[in-house]
Amino acid sequence: MIWNALPALCRGAGISLALVASSVAAGMLMGVPIGIAHVYAPRPMRAALWVFDRIFRGFPEIVLLFLVFFGLGRLPGVSIPPFAAVVIALGLRSAAYQGQIYRGALEMVDRGQIDAARALGLSMPRTIRHVVIPQAARFSLPSLSNEYSIVLKDTALAFTVGVVDLMSRAKFLAMRSRETLIVYALVAVFYCVLTHAGVAVFRIIERRVAIPGLGQRQRRLLP
Amino acid sequence: MSSFAALAEAIPRLLDGLLVTLRLIAVSAPAGLALGLVVGLLQVYSGRFSRGLAGAYQLTFRGVPLIVQLFILYYGLPRVGITMTPFVAASLAFTLCSGAYHSEYVRSAVLSVPDGQMDAGRALGMSLGQTVIHIILPQVFRKALPGCSNEIVYLIKYSSLAYLVTLVDLTGEGRLIAYESFRFFETFLIVGLIYLALVSIAASFLRGIERWIRVPM
Prior knowledge:
The complex is a heterodimer.
Chain A: H1 2-40, H2 43-58, H3 61-72, H4 82-108, H5 111-119, H6 124-154, H7 166-177, H8 180-209
Helix pairs in contact in A: 1-4, 1-6, 1-7, 1-8, 2-4, 3-4, 4-6, 5-6, 6-8, 7-8
Chain B: H1 3-45, H2 48-63, H3 66-76, H4 86-112, H5 115-123, H6 128-158, H7 170-181, H8 184-212
């Protein structure tokens, strides 16, 4: 039973991973400018961001998914395939969260770093690009790893709009074989492995790019 | 447009659903917090065996999507003769899952209390239990609260998964209304806004507690 289920579950897991990768990437694409805007944009733009942030961090993931798939997808002239609907919903949600992650990371960069770069004659955009971003990117890695594990678990909702992911394969197998407990326990193992393997990869990256001393310099010598 | 008239009719039904959602949260938020506190303390102070058990619980329940946990409880366990009502299954799943996340905040809060606090308590003649209750825990509550508040906000949002085990909560009622009226966008927008209101109220309430119990440095 378990051996027969494995190929189907593996194929489903592939789709789940594709969903995570696309959603986190889409979230990053939108989240980086959002994070920068949180810190550096003028006030009216920050107010608009606040509304975006409230909606995409305050609505349950499944409601966002239904809004995109059933709400937008049924408007005349619009058709959104299930896979795209999941990536749009989870991508926007992730963009809001990642925006906060990058905001926090940018604010962690010591103000003196910016002053020093400016004093050396770097323009503001170059300061941000060469001094602020390299540090902020490292500060944001632990939260990003957390975000991966959250988005992975959220993709388990994709079956509700008809994506044939890991969960949907499991539902089908469970229905056909009636071995609900074995199948869902097996799926739990799959997700558990994917979550912790992904987090381990992030930890390796963190160690690879670590700069000795960075992040421990929070304590000032003088009050 | 009769759109808003139709929505006005839907409001009482959404309130019925909201009531189910609130009951789910009222059961599982405190239960999850209590479980997380116990597990978090076990992870620091107990013997090797129960420490390992607590760690395994945390890794498992934080590594598996809530919906899978819910399906195991509601659709899987009947295979071995354990059946429960949708409400019990949902609140149990929410409790176990959020407990795992709470326990991590509690654990790191306990570890962040300086060792000297424990030594000072013991040196004053307090037992281990007394020191934990009177010296460590008050500090742990304050340090763990921001993380735990976040977790409660997540719990409110994820309570929407209860509809997948046939419970007609706010999301379930919203789905029924949407399919009957074919007003998917408006219905889910209103459902989402109700969740947003719940989340905002909970967050500002918890922030109030944080401010209230803060110890001036």
